[in-house]
Design a protein that fits this description.
mainly beta, globular, transmembrane helix, Large extracellular alpha-helical protein, DUF5719
Length: 476
């Protein structure tokens, strides 16, 4: 009897245990599956707005000539001096001369470093811009050369220059920083990469400019592209190219850095002039006169499938697109021989990232010249542009979007200029020398051209680099 009672009690306890386990399982499942009211504690933080650093720009300085002194055949010397226009929409700009590679008679004959400080308490840096121009007329070198005063960078691309017969190209490396910069030049041509031991470990002292003749590194190069990288300080890299045919000077240009490798490169404001005279000279002379040409380099390991389109700034398509394959690691030049005289936006689309620029020539009644047009990233909604004194200056706008852009060009004094830039097209405005604030141009590519009979030059307008952005701080 006792055994039966014990068994009965044990069975009850077992059943109770099973029921308890079941209830616990239901509770756990409910806690896991049923939504609970949200409860979270955000980490305390504070948004800090740092004071933007001072802005710097560097104007490359006057056009240089080699062998001006027979005793120093490889030493560059300045030919006259350039004229710069610069300023901000805020406080005055501070200027200082960088030490040139060669001694000169005047401090004005050297690269010019510009600095704009952000006023105390300001939430944004001032708009800042500068540009220079020089007209050269000597027995050995002549032409018009304009350039933007650019920000120093640790990585830039020069798509310009040549070292074939009659061509002289100099790489100008300007270091506005307070520390020395060690520069490496990776040089590529139509035959691939150039093995040049002297192209690495180039020391550019703080506050100085170094001049590197390209012919000493890449002789007989028809289409060089130079990748400039630095450690330590940053530099502004510029390519000075001049051309002499026989004993006659045929132009000079200062070409700034082009856009970083990308699958789409937009080159605004390409000015083409005197094509009839160029065609006649091409057939009559033993040394060819170049047609408008796109220079393209593929820095990767895959060949690029290239499509080149050109649209006139009136918004009308200018001929058919050009398609071509460019080998990886090689530089190619593709002529734009289907265009007519006028202003164009040239767009290079590629299956892989490339760098690109356009070269044009002009023949006047007495003189000849050429110009390089670089690709450029789009500007922001507010941009300051400096237009140096020169022949027939124009502001050019390219609009790759699907909507028309309404742009206002406000001079430092005077009435603003209203300009409509059509979707997938371009437009330009003639402007006198001075500084202009551009609003409504967010996403547009901009350049400045200068052109006269037998003279041409151009430079891209680049947006300012980021100086300071808000930082979210999480204290411990």
């Amino acid at each position: 009897m006792a055994d039966r009672r014990a068994l009965a009690q044990g069975g009850v306890r077992a059943i109770g245990g099973l029921v308890g386990v079941g209830i616990a399982a239901v509770v756990i499942a409910g806690a896991t599956l049923l939504p609970l009211s949200g409860f979270a504690i955000d980490a305390p933080s504070k948004t800090v707005h740092p004071v933007p650093a001072d802005q710097q720009r560097v104007c490359p300085g006057p056009v240089l000539a080699l062998a001006a002194d027979a005793g120093q055949a490889s030493q560059p010397s300045a030919l006259g001096q350039s004229t710069a226009v610069y300023g901000t929409d805020g406080p005055a700009t501070q200027t200082r001369n960088l030490k040139p590679d060669a001694s000169t008679d005047s401090a004005d004959q050297s690269p010019l470093a510009l600095t704009a400080a952000t006023p105390q308490g300001a939430t944004r840096p001032p708009l800042f811009a500068g540009a220079q121009v020089q007209s050269v007329a000597s027995p050995d070198l002549a032409g018009l050369a304009a350039a933007s005063c650019a920000e120093a960078s640790a990585d830039s691309w020069l798509v310009a220059g040549a070292t074939t017969l009659g061509q002289t190209s100099l790489v100008l490396l300007s270091n506005p920083t307070s520390v020395d910069a060690t520069v490496n030049l990776d040089i590529y041509t139509e035959t691939g990469r150039v093995a040049a031991p002297g192209a690495t470990g180039i020391v550019v002292p703080a506050g100085a400019q170094k001049v590197v003749p390209l012919a000493g590194l890449a002789p007989s190069a028809t289409a060089p592209v130079v990748h400039v990288t630095t450690t330590g300080g940053a530099v502004v890299a510029t390519m000075q190219q001049s051309f002499e045919q026989g004993i006659d000077p045929r132009g000079v240009e200062l070409a700034g850095a082009t856009g970083a490798p990308s699958r789409v490169q937009t080159i605004p404001g390409v000015a083409i002039a005197s094509l009839a005279a160029i065609t006649a000279a091409q057939s009559a002379e033993s040394v060819s006169v170049e047609f408008p040409t796109v220079r393209i380099f593929v820095p990767g390991t895959q060949d690029a499938q290239i499509t080149i389109g050109a649209v006139g700034e009136a918004g009308t398509a200018a001929g058919n697109s050009l398609a071509q394959t460019v080998k990886a690691g090689n530089v190619a030049e593709i002529p734009l021989d289907h265009l007519k005289d006028g202003y164009f936006t040239v767009t290079v689309r590629s299956s892989v990232p490339v760098v690109a620029a356009v070269r044009t020539s002009t023949i006047g009644a007495k003189t000849r010249d050429f110009a390089w047009f670089a690709s450029t990233p789009p500007i922001t909604d507010s941009q300051l542009v400096a237009v140096p004194p020169g022949p027939a200056p124009r502001l050019h706008f390219a609009n790759g979007g699907d909507k028309d852009a309404k742009v206002k060009i406000q001079p430092a004094s005077g009435k603003p200029i209203a300009l409509t830039v059509p979707a997938e097209g371009g437009a330009n405005a003639a402007v006198p020398t001075g500084r202009y604030t551009i609003t409504g141009g967010d996403g547009l590519e901009v350049s400045v051209s200068l052109q006269a009979d037998g003279q041409a030059s151009a430079f891209a307008v680049s947006p300012a680099g980021p100086l300071a952005s808000a930082i979210e701080v999480y204290p411990h």
